[in-house]
Amino acid sequence: MSRKLSIALVAAALACTTFATAAQTSAAQPKTRAQANTAWGEEGLEKRTIKGLDAVYARPGATLAAYKKVRLGPITVAFRKNWDRQVPGTMRVRADQQQRIKDQLAGLIRDEMTKQLKQGGYEVVTAAGADVLDVNLSIVDLYVTAPDLPTVGRVDVYAISAGEMTMIAELRDAASNDLVMRVYDHAEADESFRPKRITNIDNKQEARAAAAAWAKILRTQLDTARGVQGGKR
Fold first, then answer.
1. Residue 233 falls inside a structural domain
2. DSSP conformational letter for 232
3. Per residue in 61-101, pLDDT tens?
4. Domain that includes residue 186, residue range
5. Sign of CA dihedral 64, 66, 69, 74
């Protein structure tokens, strides 16, 4: 079941990272949950059930119990093909504007991941180690209904949905580079019964909320594997 997360968030980054990944070379990124299930099952991975995520597959016998630190890899962002041609009320989105959206969204996700992990007592590091988990994130199939772009005069965008995106992740042991887990999760914005105006304030709030939700799932899974309860470590 897809988690409904308001992706107006992506436009937030405009006003101013699953998890498939820059480091994932052993398997092509799946485009749907069905493709993830098929490809990762054929890879010999075990299906796991984690609340809030569409598809999770782990190396047989793999556990997160040994990890006290996390190293975040580069967070990549890719738009849905020709998404900008469907954006209402704006001119064609230039390549530099698209790159700005990608960079700022990736930065926002990294900030929230780092914040949530540190709040949970996990150190975010840049070097490999025996207790370090590599987390490589990608955002794919990103569709933004109302990006914040310069226009001639004021343009208000009304829509029943702010957009959608898919997060893919690959988790590996930093010391050995052994695969630990793959994750696929498609997020759709909440739909309203009638079109509503999407603002930059809404976008920013939703962006951080969505990124924090993914980060909390990772933190919870680390805690559960290590038997951490009530903040005691």
1. no
2. B
3. 999 999 999 999 999 999 888 777 666 555 567 788 788 88
4. 3-226
5. negative
